[in-house]
Amino acid sequence: MRHTRFFAAVSMLALLAGCAGLHRGQVRFDRLSDCPQQTADELFAKQSQLGPSSDTHTLECALTVLRDSQDIALLRTSLGSRLCLHLAERETHTEKREKLATEGVDLAETALTHKGEDEGAVHYYLAANLGLAVRDHITVAMKNLGRLESEMKQALALSPDIDDGGPMRLLGALYLKAPSWPNGIGDLDKALELLEKAVNKHPGHPLNHLFYAQALWTEGDEAVLTQVKAEFAQGEKLLAEGDWGHNKAAWQKEFDAFRQELGGVMPVRQ
Amino acid sequence: MRKTCLIIASLLASFTANAAPNPEMIVVCYPGGVVNAKDANGAMSAMLRVVERVGQWQANSFNSLFTAKSDECRQQMAEKKPKFAITSLGLYLELRSQHNLVPVVQPKIKGHTSERYRVMVQKDKYRSLDDLKGKTLGGTVLEEQTYIGKIVFVGKYDLARFFVLKKSNQAIRALRALDKGELDAVILNAQQFGGLASLHLEKPLAAVFTSEEIPLMGVVANSATTTAEERTRFSKALEGMCADTEGKKLCDLFGVEAFAAVDPAVFEPMVKLWDKGS
């Protein structure tokens, strides 16, 4: 299940074989005729402006340009994979969500074959898309756990600080949620270490606090209950006060779900 | 049974939203596990959908309720009075009279329907179990102390008096503590013992105690609320699971070759040992 580098075409094939079970096929977008005329160069220049706060139509237009592009400079970036992730996270239709996430995996793999400068980000978005693509399919998810871990480790090694400590947060969450040894790669000690580090180095991201609270809660030690509450409250405050764009609603659901799991421990949100 | 529980427990997401109007509740008890119920029911859902199809029940005829705590398991068994349950051997032995439980199927793993437990120490630090008197013993299986004392140690040791017990919900954490010398010994089930090579611990470990073969526990039924036909049907469905295309994926994933109908005689020695210590 583990550790493949993805430069040559041969390893690319091996990789795709390793992702068996993913839902492939491009999702068609509406209103493409309303998209502004954009060249690959223009899209490359404004890639940092495309994110959680961009409206969905803008992201769809950008992805359409990228889909049709042969521009190596553009294809070697993490942009395609990142666009797919944002669109997939907003998609409520399961099959479409999985197709978008799988396209994000494929675009990241393409970027890796061209060796871009932001390789860490490419691994990061590859892992995030892969996680989203398999999360509702138990056997596929289990088969891809090693791949997920490998991608996140590479992202962590190359670009630990992107997306407010995203690689630490994602890898920590993976170790927290995955089946634990000897059944899987789940490891509460590793999860606690990574998520504590994410909170300390990037205290401004709400999910760093939420996931750390979840890890502390899983520890099951009454002594850390105060800390669980504090991390949860801090994360929720950051979410309420920050500009998190389209991510806000989805993240709030995560907080609400954990509040429910905590039962009477946390006060009900007003 | 631990393996069966692990199959279920390892995967686990609530599926109550798509349940049939009056699904039959199956209580799933996995004492000592670190998994949460929300996660666990996803795996149960996948398994039950296959069982329903293979056994030709209507989809969503079964639902599951998962717990990793022995006390909660006792409570749920009393409240829900399930026709079928997935329990550890310890909980089966304890609850069998109260709920008229009879074993229905056992998992077969690497050709075996039984397992051995081992007490592991740092190599050469201790030579025998008797050397561990008054020493610390950790492990996830200590969630079921009575079972370990009566069945695994065949009633020869009063666990709480002989050892200083350090219960853990993570086997890997207990083994790391053993590696650092923070624990003197750790008790492992067969699956955990089989996974030791993947851990890359600094100190070599050795077993100072290996139990007799102990049958793996699988699905049990309440013999007062189920008919022989219902039990046979459920058993056949599980026996067919690993031969089913979808079911095989789940079986393969967790190393279960098959589910086998139970020979009740296999559990009789366990029942005698349990009752002897009462």
By DSSP (H or I, 4+ residues per run), the number of helices of chain B equals 11
Mean pLDDT of chain A: 87
Element pattern of chain B in H and E? HEHEHEHEEEEHHEHEHEEEHHEH
How large a portion of the residues of chain B is in β-strands, by DSSP E?
Answer: 15-25%
Number of helices of chain A: 14
- Strands of the widest sheet of chain B, in order across it, are 2-1-3-12-4-13
Distance between the termini of chain B: 23 Å
**Major beta sheet of chain B, specifics?**
6 strands, mixed
The total number of structural domains of chain A is 2
Low-pLDDT ranges of chain A: 1-20
Quick one: how many beta strands of chain A? 0
Task: Characterise this structure.
The complex is a heterodimer of chains A (270) and B (278). Chain A has helices spanning 9-18, 40-45, 56-68, 72-75, 79-90, 94-113, 119-134, 138-143, 145-158, 162-177, 188-201, 206-219, 225-241, 247-262. Chain A has two domains: 1-159, no CATH class; 160-270, Serine Threonine Protein Phosphatase 5, Tetratricopeptide repeat. With 270 residues, chain A is an all-alpha fold. In chain A, 66% of the residues lie in helices and 0% in strands. Chain B is α/β, with parallel strands linked by helices. Chain B has two domains: 2-112 and 216-276, D-Maltodextrin-Binding Protein, domain 2, CATH 3.40.190; 117-212, Periplasmic binding protein-like II (D-Maltodextrin-Binding Protein, domain 2, 3-Layer(aba) Sandwich). Helices cover 39% and strands 22% of the residues of chain B. In chain B, the strands form three sheets. Chain B has a six-stranded mixed β-sheet, sandwiched between helices. A five-stranded mixed β-sheet of chain B has the order 8-7-9-6-10. A two-stranded antiparallel sheet of chain B has the order 5-11. In chain B, β1, α2 (37-54) and β2 (62-67) form a beta-alpha-beta unit. In chain B, α1 packs across α2 (37-54) and α4 crosses α5. The interface between A and B is medium-sized, with 18 and 28 residues.
